[in-house]
Design brief:
InterPro entries: Calcineurin-like_PHP, Metallo-depent_PP-like. It comes from Mizuhopecten yessoensis. By secondary structure, the protein is an alpha/beta fold. It has 8 helices and 14 strands. Strands 5-4-1-12-13-14 form a 6-stranded mixed beta sheet. A 6-stranded mixed beta sheet has the order 6-7-8-9-11-10, covered by helices on one side. A two-stranded antiparallel ribbon has the order 2-3. The two termini are 24 Å apart.
Length: 333
């Protein structure tokens, strides 16, 4: 297992499946500007160009599907009344890819649209025929191979974003955040220490019912000796991202995935634009992919290659490379 970008493709081996990966495109038709904390410059128009380049490369390489890890458009679109236009341009670019694109939702989607609106949009993948999605929910799963399942979380099921203020989910999120963050600006982590820096409005949580759903999938996968990739916008392992970007209830999510580490291969996230990675004590690889919107490179994406015994993630441009061993070989009978 390599977290240092030294991964090479297996010479002479044909990948069973190829997966495109991109995070935090945050496209907007506005001039470049710094982030909220004035520490990192964002290239909003260039981000769409980078997405288009990724689609061209994935198509040429005959990639099978794409994981879009959230924040595909930026919150500034809401201020410009350009949410639908921006989403249309992103969707148009992604539709040039001939295979399925599986979306997660981030905070920036929720600055532009309600969760109810997103379920009716092109950014909801749970209604694809190959996906299993609980009725009325926005988290789902699908199989890439008979020995590899992907579970997609809604990290903002409990949130102060994209939900009515009188909804139970909003109220729970508000109580969690305000109970741990005394500041007037609930997006400012200054003064918060350690993992308490996560108690911010731009983060969310997953419900007990979603955790139970995840646990049921992992229990079944373990029994059937099926590998699992879990993905969501927010990181869940504190060593894989800056603490202010963690899922609000990341300890609960970590408890579940580590309990079933026998089947979980990796957890894939975005949200933290610097990116990061680490392997937890149970051997699960956690990768936080960097924000494409802040890339200085001419490319900013990854392609994952599934082999019989391993998953190789090959980064391009600002994305690093990783490799992890599958829990169960694909050719196992």
């Amino acid at each position: 297992m390599d977290c240092n970008g030294n991964t090479e493709l297996i010479v002479g081996k044909e990948a069973v499946c190829k997966i495109g990966i991109i995070a935090d495109v945050q496209y907007a038709d506005i001039d470049d500007r710094y982030n909220f904390r004035k520490t990192r410059l964002r290239f909003y128009r260039k981000a769409l160009t980078l997405l288009k380049r990724a689609v061209i490369d994935w198509t040429a390489e005959e990639v099978d599907c794409v994981f879009q890890l959230g924040d595909v458009i930026d919150g500034f679109n809401k201020d410009e009344n350009a949410s639908k236009c921006a989403l249309g341009k992103v969707v148009e670019a992604l539709k040039l890819f001939p295979g399925p694109v599986y979306h997660t939702w981030g905070n920036h989607e929720l600055y532009n649209f309600s969760q109810e609106e997103l379920i009716q949009s092109d950014l909801f993948s749970g209604n694809m025929p190959q996906c299993a999605c609980p009725k009325g929910k926005s988290y789902f799963s699908f199989n890439i191979h008979r020995k590899l399942k992907v579970v997609v979380l809604n990290c903002y099921e409990i949130s102060m974003l994209g939900l009515p203020e009188d909804s139970p989910e909003y109220k729970v999120a508000e109580a969690i955040i305000k109970g741990n963050n005394p500041k007037k600006n609930l997006n400012d982590p200054d003064g918060l220490q350690g993992t308490n820096r996560r108690f911010l409005k731009f983060n969310g949580a997953i419900s007990a019912s979603q955790l139970d759903w995840l646990k049921a999938h992992l229990r079944e996968a373990t029994a059937n000796r099926v590998n699992v990739i879990v993905m969501g916008h927010c990181p869940i392992f504190e060593l894989s991202a800056e603490s202010m970007n963690l899922l609000l209830n990341f300890p609960d999510a970590m408890d579940v995935v580590t309990e079933y580490s026998e089947c979980v291969v990796c957890y894939l996230a975005g949200h933290d634009h610097e990116g990061g990675s680490s392997v937890d004590s149970s051997g699960i690889l956690h990768v936080t992919f960097p924000g494409t919107v802040e890339s200085l490179e001419v490319d900013s994406y990854a392609t994952a290659y599934l082999y019989n015994d391993r998953l190789v993630i090959q980064g391009k441009g600002s994305y690093s490379s990783y490799e992890t061993i599958l829990r169960f070989p694909l050719e196992e009978k």
